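step 4 of 6: structure.
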Amino acid sequence: TQLLEQSPQFLSIQEGENLTVYCNSSSVFSSLQWYRQEPGEGPVLLVTVVTGGEVKKLKRLTFQFGDARKDSSLHITAAQTGDTGLYLCARKTGNQFYFGTGTSLTVIP
Amino acid sequence: ETGVTQTPRHLVMGMTNKKSLKCEQHLGHNAMYWYKQSAKKPLELMFVYSLEERVENNSVPSRFSPECPNSSHLFLHLHTLQPEDSALYLCASSQDLAVYGYTFGSGTRLTVV
């Protein structure tokens, strides 16, 4: 199966708090991407992770790829209202990317 | 204009209408895609074009008909749609079949009445 499970489905936090969202699969990824989709817009690529155990940082966002390459997490430090959006993970299989259902994040001022 | 541009942004059509969605990319990419995004479902890949040739067609109903006249333009022709086809239709482009990820347009919000 190409199913990607993302959790939580919805998350609402206060500005300044930290949060982590997860992307899991029962099978190994060759690579995984994280996207953010703001309301009324298309998804925007944030990062690609390829190597098991890899950690990448993008300002306040930290992306981790599990050692077994079956899971990934996105940690946001000191969330801001501009972080509000739908966070999608996508795994590459062949010529296609399969997307998860996403985590909808709302950061309250 | 830069990036991937989709028109129209919103479309309401009756089940007997014929309409077309347009996508244009200004990135010099050689692959283009149509995705469907419905509430509470993962993005569904509909069609993939590489170098203007269709390379993937994921069991999409024939009421959706893609056209890729050149590497910068992609169309999705719609006819006799059903209400369940209402969704956000996203166009994306990439270099070399998404090795490095997609650049998406802002989408067309389609409502079938």
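step 5 of 6: annotate
 - The first strand of chain A starts at residue 5 and ends at 7.
 - Chain A has a mean pLDDT of 92.
step 6 of 6: archive
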